[in-house]
């Protein structure tokens, strides 16, 4: 059985990543695309051999053959389109962030529950195979008690006329909401609930009215700490997309696992012997077991659509990237922006 999908917002990430992922899967049948740009939607429909192309979201949602929708429009449209889809009893994969603010996210969650449709959020990095291995190792206690983590996601995103991500009314912010929110979600998954947030946001390089630079400190309910650095002004080749997780028995170190592409490198450093006090701090002499962590790369965009498709087919509620988790991450985002404005830590 395949689930029949429609895409609302057929440019950008949908065209670059998600639609190609859909077409790799035997669980997914893409039957309709929509975009307000008529030339673009015709081009996308022809490119992927999709028979139905719409310029209005209500027309795609009204299509009786569409069972599920992937919404990949600018953030300010998420609430309107998600509510329309829920009312029409279409299942929903909604790009991140969930909405412009917590209040809108809660409205979406309430509508989804009322309609009884399946819903997931587009934080696809939970489907990254190396991240799944890291999660297993943390849960198995291999690192011991987690005490610190770092997640890095940066890119080069210069001033672009008409770019909705550079308009706070359309995208809700800059590098923090667009990039750091991915890292918040990953670290929450790895480390547990977050209790406190402190953030810096600045526009250091470009002239748009959203931040191009953000650094966030997180404290978890366990007491562990984390740093998230997310910047729009670091050249792509310069950023290594680092992921580091430290426990009192060892660490996991990765690069190029955070981002849109599958793959990357990951290794663990585990040692019981190294837990002895060494006044010389001769790390090179310590008996540390280095373990290369491997996993077969898998298209994360394919995986997230397949996951919701299976939930629909089997009539079970999603437990990954749910509407509740989408609201939770919106709370972290709002707290981070409040902290940046007030220069104070904000409790969750």
- Range of strand content: 15-25%
The assigned CATH architecture of the largest domain is 2-Layer Sandwich
Order of helices and strands: EHEHEHEHEHEHEHHEEEEEEEHHE
- Give the count of helical stretches: 10
Work out the number of β strands.
Answer: 15
CATH topology of the largest domain: Dihydrodipicolinate Reductase, domain 2
Rg, nearest Å? 21 Å
**What global shape is seen?**
globular
Report how far apart the termini are: 42 Å
Helix content: 25-40%
Summarize the main sheet: 9 strands, mixed
Poorly predicted spans = none
On the 0 to 100 scale, the average pLDDT is 95
Main β-sheet, spatial strand arrangement: 14-13-12-11-7-10-9-8-15
Give me the secondary-structure category: alpha/beta
CATH superfamily (homologous) name of the largest domain: Dihydrodipicolinate Reductase, domain 2
Q: Return the CATH class of the largest domain.
A: Alpha Beta
Overall number of structural domains: 2
Tell me what the structure shows.
This protein is α/β, with parallel strands linked by helices. The chain has two domains: 3-124 and 300-317, NAD(P)-binding Rossmann-like Domain (Rossmann fold), CATH 3.40.50.720; 129-299 and 331-347, 2-Layer Sandwich (Dihydrodipicolinate Reductase, domain 2), CATH 3.30.360.10. It contains ten helices and 15 strands. The chain has helices at 12-24, 38-47, 57-62, 78-87, 102-115, 129-139, 168-171, 175-191, 300-314, 323-342, and strands at residues 3-8, 28-34, 52-54, 68-71, 91-94, 119-121, 146-154, 194-202, 213-220, 225-231, 243-247, 250-255, 265-270, 289-293, 346-347. Strand 9 and strand 10 form a beta hairpin. It is globular, with a radius of gyration of 21 Å. It starts with a strand and ends with a strand.
């Amino acid at each position: 059985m395949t689930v029949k999908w429609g895409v609302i917002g057929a440019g950008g990430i949908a065209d670059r990543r998600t639609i190609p992922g859909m077409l790799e899967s035997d669980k997914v049948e893409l039957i309709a695309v929509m975009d307000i740009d008529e030339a673009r939607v015709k081009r996308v429909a022809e490119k992927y051999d999709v028979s139905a192309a719409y310029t209005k979201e209500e027309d795609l949602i009204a299509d009786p053959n569409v069972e599920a929708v992937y919404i990949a429009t600018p953030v300010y449209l998420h609430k309107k389109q998600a509510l329309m889809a829920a009312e029409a009893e279409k299942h929903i994969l909604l790009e991140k962030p969930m909405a412009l603010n917590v209040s809108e996210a809660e409205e979406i969650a309430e509508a989804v529950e009322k309609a009884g449709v399946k819903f997931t959020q587009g934080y696809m990095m939970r489907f990254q195979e190396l991240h799944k291995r890291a999660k297993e190792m943390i849960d198995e206690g291999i690192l011991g008690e987690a005490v610190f983590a770092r997640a890095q996601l940066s890119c080069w995103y210069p001033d672009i006329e008409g770019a909705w991500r550079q308009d706070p009314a359309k995208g809700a912010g800059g590098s923090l909401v667009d990039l750091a929110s991915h890292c918040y979600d990953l670290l929450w998954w790895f480390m547990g609930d977050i209790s406190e947030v402190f953030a810096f946001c600045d526009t250091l390089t470009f002239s748009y009215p959203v931040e191009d630079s953000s650094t966030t400190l997180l404290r978890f309910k366990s007491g562990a700490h984390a740093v998230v650095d997310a910047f729009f002004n670091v050249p792509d080749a310069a950023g290594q997309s680092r992921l580091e997780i430290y426990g009192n028995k060892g660490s996991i170190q990765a690069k190029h696992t955070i981002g849109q592409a599958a793959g990357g490198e990951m290794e663990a450093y585990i040692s019981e012997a190294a837990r002895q006090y060494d006044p010389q701090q001769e790390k090179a002499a310590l008996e540390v077991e280095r373990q290369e962590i491997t996993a077969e790369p898998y298209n994360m965009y394919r995986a997230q659509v397949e996951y919701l498709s299976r939930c629909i087919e089997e009539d079970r509620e999603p437990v990954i990237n749910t509407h509740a988790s989408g609201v939770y991450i919106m709370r972290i985002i709002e707290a981070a922006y409040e902290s940046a404005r007030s220069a104070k830590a904000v409790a969750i």
